[in-house]
Specification:
Elements: H1 13-21, E1 25-31, E2 37-43, E3 46-54, E4 61-67, E5 70-80, E6 87-96, E7 99-107, E8 113-119, E9 122-130, E10 136-142, E11 145-153, E12 159-165, E13 168-177, E14 182-189, E15 192-200
Antiparallel strand pairs: 1-2, 2-3, 3-4, 4-5, 5-6, 6-7, 7-8, 8-9, 9-10, 10-11, 11-12, 12-13, 13-14, 14-15
InterPro entries: MORN, MORN3
Keywords: Cytoplasmic vesicle, Repeat
Main location: cytoplasm
């Protein structure tokens, strides 16, 4: 009976090439077609672990944690200064699914700064905002606006404590006119006081008190 020999099955050469091309683990700098570059860890051909991404078009740099190709974990994002061309930090904190999420600090080009919680790329939760005019808001945020309970301290030390909605004073609140030594307590709606009472509050220590005290009711 004749012996039939079957040819040994050989794996296509491109399979071997493909395995070698797959990025997994720590790799040197990998350049994209558009000039972007990434140096760091990979998993199944996706950025995963610690790594640094440089965007050629904007010059922005992200250095931190990655998860399946997206910024996820702790990291910092910076952009070049338009004048000095030096890298200027924009955000340092936590990320999830390529967006700011969790606690982080953002530095705005206007010189303002936000320290607090983020959700899906927006200020949400508790946070403190330092405004360019010297005012400071500290309290609750929702969808990038003050919402809930919070305190706004103005540059002249006057302050508002109370409710907020869509970035405006809303609900029960107190406004301390410390330079005059007065306190307004009442109800606000869309940044406008609707009703309340005005009383003297620390008038003797006020820098510029009113000529006459408010009569007691």
């Amino acid at each position: 009976m004749p012996i039939v020999k079957y040819p040994t099955a050989t794996e296509p050469l491109w399979h071997e090439w493909d395995r070698k091309a797959q990025k997994c683990g720590l790799r040197h700098t990998v350049y994209a077609v558009n000039g972007d570059q990434y140096t760091g860890e990979w998993l199944h051909n996706l950025k995963h672990g610690k790594g640094t991404q440089v965007w050629k078009r904007t010059g922005a740099i992200y250095s931190g944690d990655w998860k399946f190709g997206k910024r996820d974990g702790y990291g910092s994002y910076s952009i070049p200064d338009p004048v000095t061309k030096e890298q200027k930090k924009v955000y340092t904190g936590w990320w999830k699914n390529d967006k700011k999420s969790g606690y982080g600090v953002t530095f705005y080009s206007s010189g303002e700064r936000y320290e607090g919680e983020w959700n899906n790329g927006l200020r949400s939760g508790w946070g403190r905002m330092y405004y360019r005019n010297g005012s400071i808001y500290e309290g609750q945020w929702l969808s990038d606006q003050p919402n809930g309970q919070g305190m706004l301290r103005l540059s002249n030390e006057n302050r508002y404590e109370g409710g907020w909605k869509d970035g405006k004073k809303h609900g029960p609140g107190k406004f301390f006119y410390l330079e005059k030594g007065q306190l307004f307590e009442g109800i606000w709606s869309a940044d406008i006081p609707q009703c309340g009472i005005l009383i003297d509050f620390g008038r003797d220590e006020a820098p510029t008190p009113t000529p006459y005290p408010i009569p007691k009711v």
